[in-house]
Amino acid sequence: MEIKIETGGLRLDKALSDLTELSRSLANEQIKSGQVLVNGQVKKAKYTVQEGDVVTYQVPEPEVLEYVAEDIPLDIIYQDEDVAVVNKPQGMVVHPSAGHTSGTLVNALMYHIKDLSGINGVLRPGIVHRIDKDTSGLLMIAKNDDAHLALAQELKDKKSLRKYWAIVHGNLPNDRGVIEAPIGRSEKDRKKQAVTAKGKPAVTRFQVLERFGDYTLLELQLETGRTHQIRVHMAYIGHPVAGDEVYGPRKTLKGHGQFLHAKTLGFTHPKTGETMEFTADIPDIFKETLEKLRNN
Q1: Which of 56, 79, 202, 277 is the most buried (most CB within 10 A)?
Q2: Is the overall model pTM greater than 0.85, yes or no?
Q3: Element of type H or E holding 117
Q4: Which class of enzymes does this protein belong to (predicted)?
């Protein structure tokens, strides 16, 4: 593959990682082995790329992904013949991907729930929507294709209820508010999302539940479901989610990642038309951190 450098100044390994699908370590491996050429010449990783440089690199062979049922404990909040609601623990990836071929929510679902919709293919059976690895909380699962289509359409129509709790940095000036800012892939770092004019519409509502001076407990409601939406929006207004290593500061609350929990989930049952609403308590680490903040 070939890319043309539009903005110079970065090390070759950093530029290659930012502008391609290669990780920093894989970029370094290719550079050391002479597989990366700059204007037809081999360069070292520390080479500073210049505007107009043409960089050639190798596209790695795609990893063959398989999913298997795994006897992983799973908190199933609700289940019938059409839908299920699960409380995903913090630290669990939702579906298999490169680097995460086992131990995912899908692996657990395959063991505990025999019938799952196939609309999203063999690697994401039953998955209607996702939450980040280090975000805990509720997810709706479709057990057949008709249910999947109905639940997905309700999400698209912004009729589903999705409320989160988060501990964020700082003391917000308002008790409630709406963040309306488009989100898309960051132009500076393609592995991140960002508020950008080229992004898709994104709306997050928030309400202050408790203040701790340097931190605030919020309830947030999603109207849209962009990747990393809450984390990006809160960082955008200067109050990043505590524990967020990607969008937040280095000095933050100690935990197992961002303090973000999908607490409430509501939707219309695809067969009965009944309004369903579920709530999952925050994880123990979240509770313990709140108690420490209150005591301080």
Answers
A1: 202
A2: no
A3: none
A4: isomerase
Burial of 84 (0-12, 13-18, 19+ CB in 10 A): buried
Which one-letter DSSP state was computed for residue 83? Answer: E
What number of H helices and E strands is found in the chain? 6, 15
Nearest Cα residue to 229 out of 258, 252, 195, 196: 195
Task: For residue 70, give both structure tokens.
Answer: 């795994």
β-partners of residue 164 are 220, 262
67-83 residue pLDDT tens: 788 999 999 999 999 99
**Candidate list 18, 132, 134, 244, residue with the active-site label:** 132
The residue among 271, 176, 285 whose CA lies nearest residue 221 is: 176
pLDDT tens digits along 269-283: 999 999 999 999 999
- On whether the CB atoms of residues 125 and 86 are closer than 8 A, the answer is no
Q: Is 82 annotated in the active site?
A: no
Angle at 210 between CA 206 and CA 213, to 5 degrees: 105
Give the integer Cα–Cα distance in Å for 147 and 175. Answer: 37
128-156 residues labelled b (16+ CB within 10 A) or e (exposed): bbbbbbbbbbbbbbbbbeebbebbbebbe
CA atoms of 238 and 214, how far apart (whole Å): 12
